[in-house]
Amino acid sequence: MKVFQAILGFWLTAVILCAFLFPIVPEITRWYEFPVIPGLEQKARILFFHVPLAWTSVVGFVVSVIFAIRYLRTKKLDDDIRSSSAAGLGLLFCALTTITGSIWAKFSWGSFWNWDPRETSIFVLLLIYGAYFALRSSVQEDDKKATLAAVYAIIAGVTMPFLMFVMPRIIASLHPDPIINTQGKVSMNGTMLTVFLSSLAGFTGLYFWIYSLTVRLARLEFKRSSEGE
Amino acid sequence: MTLVQLTASGLRKDFNRRPVFSDISFQLRPGQTLAVAGRNGSGKSTLLKIVASLLSPTAGTVTLTVGGNEVPARWMFRHIGMVAPYLHLYEEFTALENLSLIDRIRGAAHTAAEYEKLLAMVSLERRKHDVVRTFSSGMKQRLKYALAWMERPGLLLLDEPRTNLDADGISMVRSLFEEQRRDGIVIVATNEEDDAVMCDDTIEISAPRRGGMPPPAGEGS
Amino acid sequence: MKKGGFLGVTAAVFRKDTSSEIRTRYALNALFLFTVTTLSIILFSFQSSTVPVQVHAGLLWVLIFFAAMSGLSRTFITEEDRGTILLLKLSTISTPVYYGKLLFNVLLLIALTAILTVLYAMVLPGFIVLSVPTLCISLFLGTVGLASASTIIGALIAKANARGTLYPVLSFPIVLPLLLTVIRATTIAMEQEGWDAAMDEYRVLISYILAINAASYLVFEYIWKD
Predict the structure, then answer these.
(1) Which residues, 6+ apart, have CB-to-CB distance to C22 below 8 Å?
(2) CA B9 from centroid of its chain's CA atoms
(3) Among candidates C87, C104, C82, which has minimal Cα distance to B106?
(4) What is the rounded CA–CA span in Å between residue B132 and residue B96?
């Protein structure tokens, strides 16, 4: 665990330094330079934070659904603790995604919110997380709360892919697609891609580290409340 | 009626991790009757619901066997008749409709004459076409007996069997009880001494104590 | 099931719910009043102004969605509130109860959608449909999907508190993909001729219906127990 934390710390520091300090230049001559993406310029740097955040909020959702399924099979409250912790953290990352995206949209598209398909999808994910916790808070009894929440997570897990599929067909996307753009060519160079993928890996690691802490905390709280006041 | 055997072992139920009761075991063969006693809130109804498989226990198992074969929990209802204050009837339907609707949902089809006979048994034959909403609480209780008795269940669960009943009703319950104990099982949850003495055996349930302190009474957390 | 048969029991549950509704009219009254109120509000606010087709398609589905939200949770809530759910649990297993109630909700919502659409077309002259078959297929698929999602969420919230507000909150993110697709299909019905113009939308709607029903079938058992 200690080793993992140390590696994660170094890793993310490196990613952040590279993401902020590597220069963006029109003609790439050195290995540590990023290419200019037309229309994005310096604003392209959000890619290294915003996209991994969005990715982890989806990971949180998937982890939550997996443990929801496991809870229904085992009926062990520990699985519910894992499921709800994953959702709680997913909610946090989802909110951060929305905020970072909005700030960026203000400077790139001129307004904080544009109902772009991905904005809408992340908004719906936020709604699902919100509904999930609203449902939890409206049930008092532990087992029942866990069961109902798990059922809701599973149903949301079944319908969410439809949204991902339907949304882009209905509303034209404003989102820059730096990995593969409309012409199907990669506008990132190797360095940019490496930093981006490292950031993705780093944020995923960060997610699971915070996740393990949250689960430990929730277990302690659970244990304390079972032992009486 | 099919003969059933009931085994409960190590039953424990927690609500929000607070134990209601723990370590309850018993075994009943056809012809045996059991009274469940305990003060209000001790979990008599919870135990009955667990036995009826309406609620899952936190720990322990309930097994119902028919001719040596275990009945899966989701099918146990077929061998169970239950009368309880928290079991409610469809008030917008008449007595007869309640019987026939539930009968169909059970997947059975008794004849009109059989419904008549059941209603006569609980002395409701003259009110069979009245909607249950207009019934007194004693009449509703009688109709619950008719419903529980319809399938001649191997296991009869009675929670506070004499609730709202008059002397006539109580003697009807008593004769049903005697009829059932000939080859079936009866479990009665009760506070009344009279009900308990009818049964072969009595278990007293009370909340397990924590650290020598009495269980918190009326502290609804 | 050994005796009675699965279909027979499902039909029995459906028949019980139908006769109960005919006798009490809780859902019917709520739905009728809802339809009258919302349609008149729309009528007052539009006056004689003309609005784009997409607005009509969207508005129609907003009406249907909220109508579903006001009526379809009742079938489970009423069993839970009156304590009759235990009687059902002592009478049968989970699946026929679920399908009986699903059937009831689907038919109720289909009837409601038909009435709403006809009324909408009558009072709002701007609602012009080029392909009636496309409209009918879209309305049918959309209604079945919406009723399926509403039924499982209805079963879920029947076990919770604060249901009135919780029902639309839980349902909206679940049915949004369906609503977006069916609004699009309805728009196509108003703009293009030929029943197959909205083929892609039909495919999405049918897969949605299959997916949500498969999920409901698997999870309802867990809601039912306890």
Answers:
(1) none
(2) 19
(3) C87
(4) 10
List, as one string, the DSSP characters of chain B.
---EEEEEEEEEEEETTEEEEEEEEEEE-TT-EEEEE--TTSSHHHHHHHHTTSS--SEEEEEEEETTEEPPGGGGGGGEEEE-TT----TTSBHHHHHHHHHHHTT----HHHHHHHHHHTT-GGGTTSBGGGS-HHHHHHHHHHHHHTT--SEEEEESTTTT--HHHHHHHHHHHHHHTTTSEEEEE-S-HHHHHHSSEEEE--PPPBTTBPPPSS---
Q: Which of C116, C28, C26, C121 is nearest to C65 (CA)?
A: C116
Return the percent helix, strand and coil in chain A, to nearest 5: 75, 0, 25
Q: What is the DSSP string of A113-133?
A: ----HHHHHHHHHHHHHHHHH
Q: Does CATH number 3.40.50.300 belong to domain B4-204? A: yes
Q: How far is B210 from chain A (nearest CA, A)?
A: 9
Tens of pLDDT, residues A131-188: 999 999 999 888 899 999 999 999 999 998 888 888 777 776 667 655 444 444 556 7
Q: Does A142 touch chain B (CB under 8 A)?
A: yes
Pair B19, B12: CB distance under 8 Å: yes
- Residues C103, C147 contacting (CB under 8 angstroms): no
Q: Where are the beta strands (DSSP E) in chain A?
A: 24-25, 34-35
Q: Considering only CB atoms, which chain C residues are within 8 Å of B132? A: none
Q: What tokens appear for C6 in the block?
A: 């699965």
- Where is A13: in which H helix or E strand? helix A2-21
Q: Which residue has the tokens 């989701």?
A: B74
Residues contacting residue B7 through CB under 8 Å, at least 6 positions apart: B26, B27, B28, B61, B62, B63, B65
Q: List the domain boundaries for chain C.
A: 2-225
Cα C49 to the center of its chain, rounded Å = 30
Which of A103-112, B116-125, B144-153, B162-171 is predicted least confidently? A103-112
Neighbours of chain B (3+ CB pairs under 8 A): A, C
- Cβ contacts of C212 on chain A, cutoff 8 Å: 155, 158-159
DSSP state, residue C198: G
Longest dimension (CA), chain A: 67
Amino acid B216: pLDDT: 45
Q: Which residues of chain C have pLDDT under 70?
A: 1-4, 48
Residue C169 Cα, gap to closest chain A Cα (Å): 6
| Cα angle, residue C127 at apex, residues C122 and C129 outer, rounded to 5° | 105
Q: What is the DSSP letter of A23?
A: P
- Domains of chain A by residue range: 49-186
Give pTM, 2 decimals: 0.90
The length of chain B in residues reads: 221
Q: How far apart are CA C99 and CA A113, in angstroms?
A: 41
Distance CA A204, CA A185 (A): 26
Q: Per the structure block, which two tokens stand in for A173?
A: 């996307």
- Using an 8 Å Cβ cutoff, are C70 and C34 in contact? yes
